Amino acid sequence: MKPLSGEKIPSGAAQTAPETFSKLTHILIVITALAMVAIHVLQAAQFVFPSGQFRNFHLGFAVLLSCLMLIESTKSGAVFKKALLAVMAVITIAVMTYIHIEYRELTEVRSFLPNQTDILVAVLLLGVTLIVSGIQWGWTIPALALLGLAYGYWGYLLPGDILVHAGLSPQRLMAYTSIPYFQGLLGGLTSLSGNTIFMFMLFGGALKATGAIDFIVKIGFALGRRSRAGPALVAVASSGLMGTVSGSTVANVASTGAITIPLMKRYGFKPHFSGAVEAVSSTGGQLMPPVMGLAAFLIVGITGIPYAEVMIAAIAPAIIYYVFLMGAVHLRAVNLGLDARDAAMEGDDGTPFASAAMRQWHLAAAIIALIYLLVTGIPAGTAALYAFALLLGLDFLMCAAANRFSLDGFKTGMMRIVDAFVEGAKSGAMVATVIAVIGVLIEILTITGFAQKLSFAMLELSDGRLVTLSVIVAISCLVFGLGLPTSASYFIVALFGAPALVQLGVPLLAAHMFVFYFANLSAITPPVAVAALVGANIAKANFWATGFTAVRLGLPGFLLPFLFIFEPQILGVTGTVFDQLIAIVQALLAIAALNFAIEGRMVGTLRAWERALLLLCSIGLLFPNEEASLTALAVAAAVGIRHAIAARASGDA
Q1: What is the rounded (10 degree) CA torsion for 330, 333, 337, 338?
Q2: For 255-303, what is each residue's pLDDT tens digit?
Q3: Could you tell me if 153 and 170 are in contact, meaning their C-beta atoms sit under 8 angstroms apart?
Q4: Does pTM surpass 0.90?
Q5: What is the domain partition of the chain in residue ranges?
């Protein structure tokens, strides 16, 4: 019945359908997330599914949950987009069911001769995964995957020895994307995603649900009050620790930067410097153990090196990176005449750190347990699952105890557990889709021989010189990182650059850490520098000034990878523990000299010739030659002693 002319429709009635649909979508998200978590926990505990079937469930639930999340976040007026996503969700359920039912036939009967239905299912799975990952992560990675598929089919038409290959038939090409070969979308990277990365995403979801983000920022404020750099140190500390929660550099900048960048500006730091500090700090969050960025898990997937070894190797470089950054912001604060010690900073709720720590001790307990389990050799996914269970168990008990074990306390504890499940499943689903798409590109580049041929070409170009090859690989990482997520930049160069380095005698982990660092640092390297771009937008600063300042503040990240190659003992992959300690101390002295030289201050203001000498000494300390390092150390010590005496005599100290 139509309303009479001029008669208004009650607002409640007009909104009933959209609100009902939104509630239904939210309920479906919660149910799907809980089912996804249950399957993964069951698989980790009992191994109830064969590997291929589990990968099918992992990717299927990830795409399904992603579709529902996108429906929920889509504006109510975008009916066509919601309908398309709903159709994709139904297709995903059908595809997942088909693969599960036909699994035995696919692996035992049609493993090399897929029928038309198998190919159709492979096409549908590829299509929905590409679309979902494109909407969530941007269209660069799906476009690369499609380009890879085109190369797999038409590669026989291309010129040159590197590009040309025999070509793949459409049927074989699609079989490599998922079924019946169980490669590509359902290959080794998806297995890594389901068995390991998803568990870390659950742990991250539990940290968020139990208040870790607020506590991390609280730690930053506690440290900031004790430094002249104040809010800049808050940014460095909180963004670095945020790496244990977030797997995204841009997410780190956006979340902590909204608090720290305005604070830095109010305390006297220039806008471009404030944005750069946050960008570099957040980029370092992906280098900080125990929970590093997505690319760190790709190292495990490509090399087979246990995650614990990757994590342990990353500890010393991450410490050096942040020591340099903390020193840089402190020296800049001194140069600007700022002093934020014991100042009340906006954004801090005023709660004493000791009180906050007492309330959130279980967060630290869970992270310590995770580190202990990883170091003792337990598989990374299992360690993350145990830490996840410990954190939720402790949090539930604390919620119950805070409410004197009343019904409300138990309800609150259960709601936080459900929130942790849903938050973790959402993060895991997003990562799973992009990992699966990356798996397609890796598969094509591998089976066509392109990666191997490009690796040999790089060796020829460098003429077998490790110095030349390392520069070529570093530049390749930064170039591929222009506009690409860190994970994509890493794995593209890791396929051909890391093998070339290994071919010249570089340890496997050192080669991949080299690529890993430069892939991460592409986020602060102009002309794209996505982390610096977000920081500049929040700070309302010039992008180029922010980007180049970020490069200056992130200098250790550009220098340390060369130490991984020429002095791999800094990672602990060669030599003794004593050799590693010597390398770490040497690197710390080098970056201290570099900081003093760039900022022009040590005890007091440095003269031009002192800065020039310290700059040369920092290079000498990093140079892989014992005599050069000792000479540089002696000169730096002499400059430092002479400067300290002169500064005190003149009253500049």
Answers
A1: -100
A2: 778 888 888 888 888 999 999 999 999 888 888 887 777 778 888 888 8
A3: yes
A4: no
A5: 191-295+339-434, 575-653
